Amino acid sequence: MPPHSDQVARYARFAVRRAGWVVLAWLAVTVVMNVAVPQLEEIAGRDSSPMVPKDAPSMRAVELMNQEFSNGDAESFIVVAMERTSGLTKADRAYAEGLVGGLAEDEGDVAFVQDIRDPALRRALTSDDGQARYLLVGITGATGAPASLRQVAAVRDIARAGAPDGLTVQVTGPTATVVDLATETEHSVVRITVVTIGLIALILFLIYRSLVVPVLILTVVGLGLGLGRAVVAWCGLQDLFAVSTFSGSFLTAIVLGAGTDYAVFLVARYHEQRRLDVEPGRAAAIAATRVGSVIAGSAVTVVLATLAMALADLGFFNTTGPAVAVSIAVNLLVSLTLTPALLALAGRRGWAEPRESKASGVWERVAGVVAAHPARTFVASLVPLALLAAVFPLTDLSYDVRDPLPEDAESNAGYALLGRHFPVNEVLPDYVLIRADHDLRTSKDLAVLERASAAVAQHDGVALVRGVTRPLGVPITEASVAHQAGLVGDELGKAQGKVAEGTSGAEQLADGAGQLDDGAGRLADGADKAVTGADRIAASTGRLTSGMTKLLDGADAAITGTGDLRTGAAGLADGLDTAADQVQVAVDGLGLVHDALATKSLTCGLDAACRQARTGLKQIWEAERDQLLPGLRQAAKGARALATGSGDLQSGLQQLRAGIAKARNGSRQLADGQKVFADRLGDLSAGVDELAAGADRLYGGTRQVAASLPELEHGLAAAARHLRETRTAADDPVSGGFYLPPTALQDQDFAAAMRLYLSPDGRTARLAVLGSTDAFGPEASDRVEDIRATVETSLNGTRLDDAEVLTTGMASTNADLRDYSMSDLEVIASLALVAVFLVLLLLLRSLVAAFALMATVVLSYVAAIGLSVLVWQYGLGIQLDWTVAAVAFVVLVAVGADYNLLLTKRMHEEAPDGSALGIARATAATGGVITSAGVIFAVSMMALLAGRVTTIGQVGFTIAVGLLLDTFVVRSLLVPALATLLGRRLWWPQRTR
To answer: How far apart are CA 34 and CA 222, in angstroms?
Structure first.
């Protein structure tokens, strides 16, 4: 809070009594501080405060991307672009590849270099016309941090060092743009300072019409500026707060303006006392005492308002606000002590005497008009301010860091170079990071990523989406269902050819079936004949069995009877030998038939009836061979023995009978087997007939197959043609079909895409989204949130439902910048209004006056923004920079409150009862000094237009027009008219005399 008037009086009297020592002390302190402490620009260069807070969503995404896709040390990225309009030469290509190693050696500045030596990357980073190439470089300084100035400069030096003749090399990118902005701002400080001092000196000379007073004021302001910069640098050196390049530029303009105002206030009161013939030393002390509290209150409002910026999240505000606050506090001490001391020293020599001014008469007439017509004056002054304020909602702030820079700035020239050879926003894509809890290198997860990519590609304003599933901006051809259908079609086409080749084989099959039909027919004829022969054999065997029965009866009769035994036995033996010979012939024949059926007939083994017939034939053959034939041989031998008389008759007859019985049993078995054989041969005949009919049907079927093969060939050709056409028609990124076989993950080209768009652990994927609109524009910033929501929606119900989705890039950064700037403006405005209101309330001790002054100050600010919008946005077609609103608010509210505070304090002195005459006297008395102070401050801010940075010029212009509106309209007309209308109510709740 401002010091009490008694304390101010003591300081003033001490400064006047020890004027020489005070001057020497301040001079010594200023020199020592500037020698002992590094310059402000050097301290600012050590700062690492980013433009956007590190906890911003876009910055967290940048950190994650750095960790997963580089070595994690890069805080920001720049682009080295090169161009040769006649086409890149071999030397140019060698230079680009060598640059990778050269930059990598600078480990202190460079954290990452895109290896253009990789063939896949080299193709991607070279323009289609072969005239341009670029590579991405990561640096350790954050975007907007002063440390990035040195690092970008180092990269530019390395890039230019070995560039072949005729090759244009430029370093660009958002970080390089901010560096160029800071560099231009720093270079503009000297120009702005010289212009400001020159204009202030000119105005002071016109006001005082002497050299002494302007020199005196400029001495105070110069020492205050030098000491303020040194103190701010010392605070930055001690890490009390961060300082940036922007701190120095705004600090200079505000200190020059405010310091001059404080000195003008003191000189004005000093001259007032001198006109009353007060001794110079005493006049200086009285001036400091009377105005000191007002100056202190004015300075405190500026200090508190700018300190509110320290609570902002954006580095531009929290590095500028504290620096301005400290420098204003230093200038307050310098003004309250050094100015009275110099006035006392100059006054004793007669160097600072007042001159007659005609301006006092002008302000008396203005005050008289206000006092006579307060209501009309109030309306007349309020209407233009309200009209200008009505334009305020039309403000369209710009977050494009390129706009403040001239076109020949290297970063802007680099953007133009890239725009001539690469797709829009080639180096300014939006990145979407998808962080999962598992490895994404599976066919299913890759399909989900393609689904997300396709969804983003459909969004309005998106020109191209690149990712692991579409490294060139379109889905991998081999992974589309359309392509897979085409492959099937190709294979069916091959099958069609093979079927065509097999047509002749089918014809051969039909011919073979015909031959099989003929053979089966002949086999059926043979089987019929075999059945007839078997029937005859069975009949003969039946007769044989009957004869054997009769023979057995005869043997029985021979055993019991007598007769011509010898003769009969001999004849019987002959008959038996003949029968045995005949049976032997039958046995041999049956053996040949069985052997033929068993070993030489392949079809008999396939037919069940034939197999059974063969079994019956074997039974007959074995019965004749093993029983009938041996029995006949034995009987013949017995009969021969009887005939020759070589054996016992009884035993011979018994042997004969046994042989005949055995032979009869064999003949019976033979008859049974022959009957089975005949039956089975019948079955065989029927089976062979069926075989012949089947073979005939087989022949017809194979003929039909052979005939249908051309139709099958035609159908396969049609299917192949259809699938190929499906591949052509469905090969569209929006069709959604995607499948990448696991084997494709090992493909070399796909591995290159994975390195770019999948982290080494496979858990983080990134999509590069190229917008069709300006990446720095509001459309791009608005689109970012929609893109993030689109990706999250596309992941719903999939394996990546719980994945974290982050966005980064220039558009994301600008979106965060917009959100933070609006939030910071609310915080700064609220705290500044509260602080200024409390100071006004403390000094004026009136709620009504404090509220009235605050309302006029806010109205002045809104009108100033409206006027700037008319001039810049609608007149020049240039949007106001986002920094204008907050900085202008702090300065206009604080300084505007100062001027109104000076006027209102004088009103309280002249009209404690709220009388119109007292208010008019206060208005006339302060009119000249406040107008001079306002014009000087406005000119010092207008001098910011001398720089090449549009942002600084817009801030200076807005503050300047706001100060002029406040000086000539608000302070001169609106406040006096309002005070006159309120009367003594202005001082409520004070008791007025």
So the answer is: 13
